[in-house]
Hints:
Layout: H1 2-12, E1 14-17, E2 21-28, E3 31-33, E4 38-40, E5 43-50, H2 60-70, H3 74-93, E6 98-100, E7 104-109, E8 112-117
Amino acid sequence: MNALLNEFLLSHQELPLHAVGVLRVASQPAQYDVTERAFVPPTAALSFEQLTADNAVSMQPLVRFVAQQLQSTEEEAFEKVMLWQNDTAQLLQQGDAVTIGAFGTLQQHDGQIVFLPQRCKQALSP
Length: 126
């Protein structure tokens, strides 16, 4: 499931995590560094927003994507996605850390869920 979630995150620029929050790819456009007289290429970074009423994201695109990739029905894909996401939420509530593919780790800290990105650089493009 992690490989599918990685692919979805890269292609859709966000990954909804039911009952937890949303993992998003934030892009920074190319810039010109005057002191170095060179262009700095575009960059991308991951950010995590804990679930609130204001940032709820539909699960439907993720379910459709998983159904297509697994060549299954949307109902079967929904069950697989919800099972993974419910397990993730339960692990976080228990205080365990959850690794999201090669991107980083979610964990609970002082009652808040935080995202700790991987230290190595990963190209954030599909």
